[in-house]
Design brief:
With about 290 residues, this protein is mainly α. The protein has a single domain, classed as Farnesyl Diphosphate Synthase (Orthogonal Bundle), CATH 1.10.600. The protein has helices spanning about 5-20, 30-35, 45-55, 60-80, 100, 105-120, 130-145, 150-160, 165-190, 200-220, 225, 235, 240-245, 250-265, 275-285; strands spanning about 90, 95. Strands 1-2 form a two-stranded antiparallel ribbon. Helix 1 packs across helix 4 (about 60-80) and helix 2 (about 30-35) packs across helix 6. The two termini are about 20 Å apart.
Length: about 290
């Protein structure tokens, strides 16, 4: 197993432990749905938090709450994204979506609770007060109207638009919907250390866009059993995707160019950033 795969697995385990610990003393279907929603993911965002923290000399125990926070927030976004009023999906990570396993009310409340839990966790990150405040405020921006929520709103609006989105509009949409949380995760370590975030920010923007292009490719080439969710829905809905706009081969070239750019921008970190480079290559090689 490569260094990245080991770090990815460890990050996912640590983030899950942070969430479970934060929920100690609670019980009932909302708590069960919250735990269920956080299981089975790759843990990429938690990995980015912990790995960039390591690059900046931040102890893993100090950064662990932030890793749990981003995975809780990401899980909330998926629970709500799957609802009938959004994408209406029945399958997520190879399992029934939360609203299918329980009901829509439970899914809404579990998502709400995961979102607030994320901010509870990030507030426990062990760093200077100014750094902690930066983490909280930038997470709010990344998850709100300027980021993920704004991107999701654009995505919903595009489904009923008379004219499909252009390539630049699609990039803007995905920079919010997918990229904003990835950028927060990848710059978290530098924020904890109160260091410059510019190189990691560019790395994350390239990585986030490559991640979404890979998702669009999987929607065409993947199968539901391997991907863990329904495939072909974007094409059936006539939505603009990187594959529809660039063609399959063009999308693959664009993703590879983005990964190359993401790796190159880390030159200032030298070999210490090799695990982050491996993560970038994984993003476009994954099958789910």
């Amino acid at each position: 197993m490569g260094q990245f795969q080991q770090a990815l697995g460890a990050a996912g385990t640590l983030a899950a432990a942070q969430i479970a610990q934060a929920l100690e003393g609670t019980c009932g279907p909302i708590r069960d749905a919250m735990i269920y929603a956080t299981q089975g993911g790759k843990g990429l965002r938690a990995f980015l938090v912990l790995e960039t923290a390591r690059l900046h000399g931040v102890d893993v125990d100090a950064a662990a709450p932030a890793a749990g926070a981003i995975e809780a927030l990401h899980a909330y976004s998926l629970v709500h994204d799957d609802l009938p009023c959004m994408d209406d999906d029945d399958l997520r990570r190879g399992q029934p979506t939360v609203h299918r396993k329980w009901d829509e009310a439970t899914a809404v409340l579990a998502g709400d609770a995961l979102q607030t839990l994320a901010f509870e966790l990030v507030a426990q990150t062990q760093c200077a007060d100014a750094a902690r405040l930066s983490l909280i405020s930038t997470l709010a921006q990344a998850s709100g109207i300027r980021g993920m929520v704004g991107g999701q709103a654009l995505d919903i609006a595009a489904e009923t638009a008379d004219v499909p989105l252009t390539l630049e509009q699609t990039k803007t949409l995905q920079a919010g919907k997918t990229g904003a949380l990835i950028e927060w995760a990848a710059t978290a370590g530098a924020r904890m250390a109160q260091d410059d975030t510019s190189a990691l920010g560019q790395y994350a923007r390239d990585l986030g866009l490559a991640f979404q292009i890979a998702d669009d490719i999987l929607d065409v080439e993947g199968d539901a059993a391997t991907v863990g969710k329904a495939v072909g829905k974007d094409a059936d809905a006539g939505k603009a995707t990187f594959v529809s706009l660039l063609g399959l081969d063009g999308a693959k070239r664009e993703a590879q160019e983005l990964v190359t750019s993401a790796c190159d921008v880390l030159h200032g970190y030298g070999a210490e950033a090799d695990t982050l480079r491996e993560a970038a290559r994984f993003v476009i090689a994954r099958k789910s």
